[in-house]
Amino acid sequence: MKKQIVVALALLVSTISFSQKNELKAAEKAIKSGNFADAKSAITSAESLIGSADDKMKAKFYFLKGKAMYAMGNASNDDIDMAIESFDKAKSIEASSGKKKYTDEINVIKGEMLNGLLSKAQTALQNKEYMKSSARFEKAYRMSPQDTLYLYYAASTAVTAQDYVASLKYYEELRDLGYNGAGYQYFATNKETGQEELFDTKLLRDAGVKAGQYIAPRDKKTASKSAEIVKNIALIHLTNGDNEKAMSAMKDARAQNPDDLGLLISEANVQLKMGNKDKFKELMQEATTKDPDNAELQYNLGVIAAEAGEADAAKAYYEKAIALDPSYADAYNNMAVLILSREEAIVEEMNSLGTSSADNKRYDELRAERTKLYESAIPYLETALKLKPKSINAAQTLMNIYSATSQMDKFKAMKAKVEELQAGN
Known about the structure:
Serine Threonine Protein Phosphatase 5, Tetratricopeptide repeat, 425 residues, 20 helices, 4 domains, elongated, disordered N terminus, single chain
């Protein structure tokens, strides 16, 4: 009786093994012919039997499952997740057994998957499909966890899409990982177009220069994104109406990095969003005390002060930025914007006047005041355009001001420049 039982069990195991092999052969054949629906069907049939298989069979099963789900790049988001999981299981089994039959091919396929995801993420971003872009960047990060920049892109595109649940999750993950984001960007000028281009890696940039296609290579150090991440966490909490969590996030970050200027400015920004103007001013003063000779800091403080409606403070910050760095084009431009922001009140009063002699007199006074305003903005705009000759906004604003102040020769010249810049875009 015992022998019969042993024989029966042996036959059962043999039958299961035979069935597994048949289903995997069917899946393999379907994958080779590009029939991924049939491949998935065969994989599903084999899945319930795979638990009893040996490591060799399991590795093959998960390898084929990954290929079936990936479908040569035509997979849905859920199938991509399953493909990644299956490939990782196959690699793990082979790593444990020491027999790596599929590992190299899996690495090649995952490289293709990663490039495909990044390409689709970039395309979605260009099409302003921010949630699609975010989801694909997030999947790219899960595939290549050492590339935390992809998770940062997932977070920032989710914010743009106003999906604060997803963005908060990603930002908090970045914070917990200790993500800094500081590094270098690699630029070189295309000899044919004369345009400076950004390269993904130093290796690619240097290869282009060596090939003679690019000249004037330069490296630009990128600032740490830690402060931005914590600021965004806090601002998302503010958006969600949770001021306590917002300030808690800032407090924890400042406690860990008390000398971080970025965090200090971020906290000032959060205080401003909460309506705490006195605390905002206090933190701004602390920032300028910590680094009084930093032109970029002075400029950023000017931007924040302008957003807060603190025109006099913004003017002082922009002037300090220009004094520290006379080539700071954006500071000149923002100074002009600050000056021209006063035009709205003048125009509003002009439009409210009647036709009495007193009103006509006041109208002339306001018109002269507006002309004076325009004239005071011109030097800043001219300098900004000189420093950034391709700034269409500066050129268009100057063109309009020259017209409004009857400087017709300058108007015609600037009009030609605007048309030239527009044609080049």
